[in-house]
Amino acid sequence: MPHFHSETFGAAACRLRRGSGRKGAGLKTALVTGSARRLGREIALRLAQEGYFTFVHYRGSRTEAAATLRALEMRGGKGALVQGDVGNPVDIKSMVAAIRRTTGRLDVLVNNVGVYKPGSLLRYSAEDFETTLRVNLSGCFRLIQSTLTLFPSSGGSIVNIGYAGVESMTGTTHNTAYLISKTGLLILTRSLAQALGSKKIRVNMVSPGILSNSVELPRSPKEWIPLGYTGSVGDVADAVLFLTGKNARYITGVNLDVSGGYNSGLRSLETGGPSARKK
Fold first, then answer.
1. Which of helix, strand or coil describes residue 92?
2. Which of 82, 85, 62, 60 lies closest to 9, judged by CA?
3. Cα separation of 151 and 79, whole Å?
4. Does residue 178 carry a catalytic annotation?
């Protein structure tokens, strides 16, 4: 997940890559934000394998996003690149327009993109604080709100990516903006599940714990993860695919914790950072 705090959030127009027109018209469609690499990439590849025309979204990582799209197509999938800053309402509008032009619908939305900047609360700049909430929380809400007209009458699925332990988080002086954004996203998930139920749109959250090769662990996983090992991006993608699939047709408003049983609130954030959903 790039530290967007060090970059300027411009109003560059979102652009649809790899051609134009309704090349995916009628196909069931998925959008995975922040899918150029790591967790987002894995989710995008898996959704494409399930038959979704998959939009690989990126903000600045165009080379990596293009590589993800090539990998998707080599596996027999179909998709396109879509670029934009989720924290910018103008870009969100352009992203939605690109999807409308290409497939004319959206069946699955995965809000995976996020900003994470570690730091002590009293030393945290107001700009970094606002950027984190603008992308991680407000941006997710705007994107969901803007894509509702793309969902078919048969409904669809929205999955927000949270963080393990979000339901038991309390006050902390470290990484406060990130924690606020993920706690808020949980409440938003549950609220939207109620609001969109009548439209047959299910809204859930998947909250990853520490994943393999994501951070340098302070001690052996056997000491603090009940299952004794760290997970992978594939484990998290499995949870997302389940919640977007027909076997979860009666599930909405839930938070699925994917952490090997580790759910002790804020400690992992203070000792190593989130599960490296670094995009």
1. helix
2. 85
3. 18
4. yes
- What are the backbone angles phi and psi of residue 189, rounded to the nearest 5°? -60, -50
Q: Average pLDDT over the chain, rounded to whole?
A: 85
Rounded distance, CA 17 to CA 87, Å? 20
Residue 6 identity (one-letter amino acid): S
Alpha carbons 220 and 136: distance in angstroms, whole number? 30
Sequence-distant (≥ 6) Cβ neighbours of residue 161 within 8 angstroms:
39, 110, 111, 112, 114, 205, 206, 207, 208, 236, 277
Which has the minimum average pLDDT: 174-178, 182-186, 196-200?
A: 174-178
Contact 114, 1 (CB under 8 A): yes
Domain 8-271 has what CATH class? alpha beta
Alpha-carbon span 70 to 48, nearest angstrom? 12
Residue 224 has pLDDT above 90, yes or no: no
As a whole number of angstroms, the distance between CA 124 and CA 178 comes to 11
> Alpha carbon of 124 to those of 121, 128, 176, 269: distances in Å?
5, 7, 9, 16
Alpha-carbon distance 78 to 272, whole Å? 36
For residue 174, what pLDDT is reported?
Answer: 78
* pTM (2 d.p.): 0.84
Q: Compute, in degrees rounded to 10, the torsion defined by CA atoms 134, 138, 142, 148.
A: 140
In the chain, domain spans: 8-271
5-9, 13-17, 70-74, 159-163: segment of lowest average pLDDT: 5-9
The active-site residue out of 52, 58, 124, 178 is 178
Q: What is the CA radius of gyration of the chain?
A: 18
